[in-house]
Amino acid sequence: MMNLDATTMVLVLALGNLALCAVLTFFDHGPVRPPSWAAWALSKQVQAGAWTVLALGGLGVVPEALALPGGYALLFAGVAIEAGAAWEEAGHPGWPRPALVLCGLAILAFFVCYLIDEQGLRSVAASLLLGAFYLAAALALGARWREASLLQRFLALATAVLALVVAARGLSVLLLPGGWRWLSSELLRQLSGAALYLLMLANGFGVLLLARERAGRELARLEVVDPLTNVPNRRGFFNALAPWMALARRPGLPTALVVLDLDGFKRVNDGYGHPAGDAVLRHVVELCKRQLRDSDLVGRLVGVEFAILLPRTNLDEASLVAERIRAAIASSPVKSERAMIAMTASFGVTVIRPEDSTVTLFQRADDALQASKRAGRNRVSQAVPAPVET
To answer: Domain GGDEF: where (predicted)?
Structure first.
């Protein structure tokens, strides 16, 4: 095993963090940069500055009396921001204030130990404080363990183990100043330096991989979710409908399908603009959700046509649900910047039959919808019932 002196290891960490700064700065993070990524990038910039100051102190370019306290103060700040970024990603945006307080206490504790410098107290303080901050980052990464991806779980475990290795050096100086058997103080110093280097790589490139993972999840979500109304799009609705189509072939309670189309929607976009039209669509979806059970599902098929899946609901019950939604839309105008926009909708209602395909099911629902439009719009029509076998 090649032994690296402390100055060389610090120089390696400085150059490594500088390289990660460049990678994180130019990384394609999308049109809007999440706060956690911005905090991670800032943490690497601060840590790069810290290790650079420490390296210059080790090389004699900067006086040690300035390099050591200044470099470690920057280092604690950088690692505190990194832990805060992990908590931001875990859904706790209020991290800056506690991170600032803990960072200030850590710097104060290190300065006291630096002034005393009894039995390597500054080395003890540095190792224990850095280990504590990295453990906080590990706890944040694993905070949502059940929902976390394998990558996030790995990063949480790896960060925790490496943080303990960093802290072990400080503990060994306190408890076993001369080392223990084969685990000498020099070996612990080497392991602590290697752990810091691995933490730099894991947390730096881990951020990039997590960003790509998040982008992949968002892309997969957008394949089945309408971004405007945040309900299933045509593909997502058909995916949810498939198992109910299969269940319709078995005896049991029926499943209903309601399709609705907003009446005269073109006048909204033409008269009030597309932002007002988008507001109307979101408003209609919210009105539908208020009239539905948790087991029901509303989806946007195309344009201003929506579909509602009503499990375990017969034709008459589904018509009552559709009527409630129709009345809610008609009595709830949408407030725009220019006017109150009144809307109505036409509905077609049917139930899934054992012999149905999605084509025949939606054709029957659409026929009922067209019957509502021909009858004057703003009404609910049932599909023609299935013929009774004799």
So the answer is: 253-385
Would you state the structure tokens that stand for residue 35, as one six-digit string?
């706060």
Q: Does residue 202 share a domain with residue 275?
A: no
Residue 87 sits in the same domain as residue 153:
yes
Within the chain, how many helices (H) and strands (E) appear?
12, 7
Residue 227: inside a domain: no
CATH number of the structural domain spanning residue 127: 1.20.1070.10
Question: Is 153 part of a structural domain of the chain?
Answer: yes
Closest by CA to 136, choosing from 48, 71, 198, 203, is: 203
The tokens 């929506």 sit on which residue? 306
Specify if 389 maps to a domain: no
* Rounded-to-integer distance, Cα 68 and Cα 79, Å: 16
Give 92-127 pLDDT, tens digit per residue.
Answer: 888 889 999 999 999 998 888 888 875 567 788 888
Residue among 108, 105, 119 nearest 170 (CA): 119
The predicted pLDDT at position 178 comes to 56
Among the ranges given (34-38, 237-241, 270-274, 311-315), the one the predictor scored with the smallest mean pLDDT: 34-38
Give the mean pLDDT of 249-264: 90
| Contacts for 338 with CB less than 8 Å, ≥ 6 apart | 272, 276
- Is 285 in contact with 277 (CB distance < 8 Å)? no
**Among candidate residues 222, 249, 269, the one where a domain is terminated:** 222
On whether both 241 and 210 belong to a single domain, the answer is no
What integer pLDDT is reported at residue 390 of this predicted model? 46
Q: What is the pTM of this model?
A: 0.68
Q: What stretch of H or E contains 309? A: strand 305-310
Same domain? 116 vs 144: yes
Q: What's the whole-number mean pLDDT along residues 280-300? A: 94
Average pLDDT (184-191) is 74
CA within 13 Å, CB half, 131: 20
Q: What is the dihedral of CA 373, 376, 377, 379, to 10 degrees?
A: -110
Q: How many CB atoms lie within 10 A of CB 224?
A: 16
| Structural domain harbouring 14 | 6-222
Question: If you average pLDDT over every residue of the chain, what do you get?
Answer: 86
Residues 33 and 137 in one domain: yes
Do 51 and 18 fall within a single domain? yes
> What total of structural domains would you count in the chain?
2
25 in a structural domain: yes
